[in-house]
User: Fold this.
Amino acid sequence: MSSPVAVIFDMDGVLIDAREWHYEALNDALGLFGLAISREDHLTKFDGLPTRDKLAMLTQDEGLPVELHKVINAIKQERTLRIAAASCYPQAHHLILLATLRRQGVKIGLATNSIRQTTEAMLGHAGILEFFDVVVTNEDVKRAKPDPEVYLTAMRMLGVQARETLVVEDNPHGVAAAKASGATVCIVADPSEVHTETLRRYFGVGL
Assistant:
């Protein structure tokens, strides 16, 4: 592709190292009702999915009563916010990358399976919320990742086509969503890999 007109980032595992936070917070909430997600299941089945989808899977597989979903979700979100407030802080390489993209006139979006309250809180703690032209959460779409709707929605709001868009993802569900949207996908292992050198190959010497 030619240099991207827009870059859309996932959040958890890309800009915020929150995968463990979500796992711990949900297990804390589930533990109040005698349930837990094993680390193996977290890594192979649940990681990257919205909490509502995880709870639906637990209902199907473990018999979690549907009427408990709302209270478990509320407890999980509260505990996630508490962890984020204590553990989330600005990362210099992210600030440099986002400032460089902004200076180059690249449109910047975020598309996440997290809810808006958690998303904006984490981005705020990380000092990067102001860089995003659009933020699309799982509350803004009908179908979360691995469906591409969240990325297609972000592209529409940014006014760009898939062929003009680079998506930065870490998780198989997110990668599947990004590829299905038609965008070019940059896969990273964790937030430490999200810096100007990683994205430079998509922009050439201009970044």
Remarks:
- The radius of gyration is 17 Å.
- The longest strand covers residues 107-111.
- The chain has a mean pLDDT of 94.
